[in-house]
Amino acid sequence: MKTVYDKEVRDELIARIRMVNEKSRSLWGKMTVFQMVKHCALWEDMVLHGEEYRRVFVGWLFGKIALIEEHGRRFNAGFVHPFFGRMTQEETGVLAYKHSDHHLRQFGC
Length: 109
Description:
By secondary structure, this protein is mostly helical. It is 54% helix and 4% strand. It has helices spanning 7-17, 33-48, 57-70, 89-106, and strands at residues 80-81, 85-86. A two-stranded antiparallel sheet has the order 1-2. β1 (80-81) and β2 form a beta hairpin. The two termini are 20 Å apart.
């Protein structure tokens, strides 16, 4: 199973994230590209740091790339998912991949 703790998987996600731009359109759902990027960046901040940041669109886009790469350097052992509860590093890595993959597919990336 793919996990963000695998460098090749992180590199794949980063390449796909670089395909996202302000003209990207959703293949399903009502989310705009800005909303998707903001949602994913806030989720990564929650997983990695337990906090939220406000950024402009370019900051969200490139900030998301930095956050994906950060999985290679750290794991937030205190992470408690609001629905699933406390998660192991393996569970968090798989969920982080699936979350990003889902939204990148949503925008054809």
